[in-house]
Amino acid sequence: MDLKLVRTFLEVSRTGSFVAAADRLFLTQSAVSLRIRRLEDDLGQPLFHRSKAGAELTHAGREFEHYALSLLNVWEAARQQVALPEGFTKSLSIGGQYSLWPRLGFRLVDGLREAMPNLNIRTELGLPERLTRLLGEGVVQMALIYTPHLRPGLVAHPVMQEELVLVAAWPDPTLDVAGRYVFVDWGPEFLRFHSQVLPDLTNPGLTFRLGAMAVDYIVRRNYAAYLPARYVKRHIDAGQLHLVPEAPRFPYPVWSVWRDDLEPDVAEITQFELNRVVATLEDETQEVLDRLDDLSNGNGLAGAGPDPDLT
Q1: Is 70 exceeded by the pLDDT of residue 303?
Q2: Staple partner for 120: which of 33, 88, 114, 163, CB 3.0–4.6 Å?
Q3: CA end-to-end span of the chain
Q4: What gap in Å lies between CA 227 and CA 240, rounded to an integer?
Q5: CATH number for the domain including 94?
Q6: Is the distance from CB of 108 to CB of 256 less than 8 angstroms?
Q7: Which residues, at least 6 apart from 284, have a Cβ–Cβ distance to it below 8 Å?
Q8: In 3D, which of 306, 215, 293, 185 has the Cα closest to residue 252?
Q9: Distance separating alpha carbons of residues 301 and 251, to the nearest angstrom
Q10: Residue 259 and residue 171: Cα distance in Å, rounded?
C-alpha cells in the first residue's frame, strides 16, 4: 500500500477538512481528493462523508484509522531499525519546539550520549501540531512541547515551569514600550492574560509566532517582547537585553509527550536525564525571576499558564 495515501487519509481525519489537509501537506485540494479516492478504491469502501462542513469519517473510515496508524508505526520502526549505524543497538527520535532546544534539548542529548553510548539519536523541530503528527506516526518517540495535543497512544508529563518575562533591548526600560514592542504569540492563554494586564500592547501591529526565535529580531532592532526567562538569561548577562520592572510575568509549563510503546529502558534513562537537566535550568530561571522581583520591589504579577489539550 502507498504510504502517501495513508498519511493523507490521517491528515484529513485529523483536520476534518480536505482543504486544511491540503494546506498541511503542501498539496492542492484536488491532489488530496485524488489520493483519498485511490485509497477508497483499494479498500472498496467510502472513508469519509463529504459535505460543505468538511469531511467526517464513515464507519469504515473509523475502522481503518487504527490500521493506518499501525501501518505507519510499523514502517517507521522498521526504517529506524534498518538504519541503525554499526555499533548502535537502540534508537530514539526526540522532537522539540525551537525555544526548547537550546539549554534543554541539547543538554538532554548530551546526557543520553553519555548514559547510553549504544543509543542512536535523531532530532526533529516543529510546532506542536507537527510534532503531534510525528509522534502519532512513530517518526518521533518523545517531544518537548509547550502546549501538547494528546492523541491515543501518547502520554504527557510536566517537565518544568517556564516563565515568560518582558525584556527590552535598551537599558533601564519601563512599561512604556509602545511603538517599540513585538507581540510574540505564545498561544490563546497568553493572549487572554496579555489582554487583561497589558491591553494597550495587545495589538501593536507587529506579531510573531516564532517563539524564542524572535530574540534576534528584538536585539538587533531595539525592540521589547515577552520571552522565556531561561532562554534570555544569557542575553541579560551579556547586557543585550534588560528586564522591564513591574512587568507581569506569565508561567508557561513545558511538557514531555511520549509514545506509550517506547522501550521501557530507553524511556527510563531519558526521563532520568531530563530530570537532571531540568534541575539546573530551574535554578537559572529562578535567578532571572529574583532579579525581576528586585527591580520591581516584589510587585511583579503572574498569570495562569495553559493546561495540555487532552482532546
Answers
A1: no
A2: 88
A3: 30
A4: 13
A5: 3.40.190.10
A6: no
A7: 103, 229, 230, 233
A8: 306
A9: 10
A10: 45
Q: Which of 22, 39, 73 is the last residue of a domain?
A: 73
pLDDT tens-place string over residues 270-296: 999 999 999 888 888 888 989 998 888
147 shares a domain with 266: yes
- Say which DSSP state 308 is in: P
Share of the chain above pLDDT 90, in %: 56
Provide the CA 196 distance to its chain's centre, in angstroms.
Answer: 25
How many helices (H) and strands (E) the chain has is answered by: 10, 11
Q: What is the pTM of this model?
A: 0.70
Q: Sign (positive/negative) of CA torsion 104, 100, 311, 164?
A: positive
The runs of H, that is alpha helices, within 185-263 are: 188-197, 215-221, 229-237
How far is residue 168's CA from residue 178's CA, in Å, rounded to a whole number?
12
What pLDDT is stored for residue 272 in this prediction?
96
Determine the 3-state secondary structure of 289 from DSSP: helix
Query: Are 136 and 277 in the same domain?
Result: yes
Supply the DSSP symbol for 209: -
The CB-based long-range contact list for 265-273 (8 Å cut-off, 24+ gap) reads: 266/90, 266/92, 266/116, 266/119, 267/142, 269/112, 269/115, 269/116, 270/92, 270/108, 270/112, 270/142, 271/157, 272/115, 273/108, 273/111, 273/112, 273/115
User: Beta strand 90-96 with 119-125: parallel, antiparallel or unpaired?
Assistant: parallel
Q: Which residues constitute the domain of residue 110?
A: 81-158+262-285
224: which DSSP letter? E
The reply to whether 302 falls in a domain is no
Where helices occur in 97-175 by DSSP H, the ranges are 106-115, 128-137
Q: How many angstroms separate the Cα of 210 from the Cα of each of 46, 136, 202, 243?
A: 39, 24, 16, 20
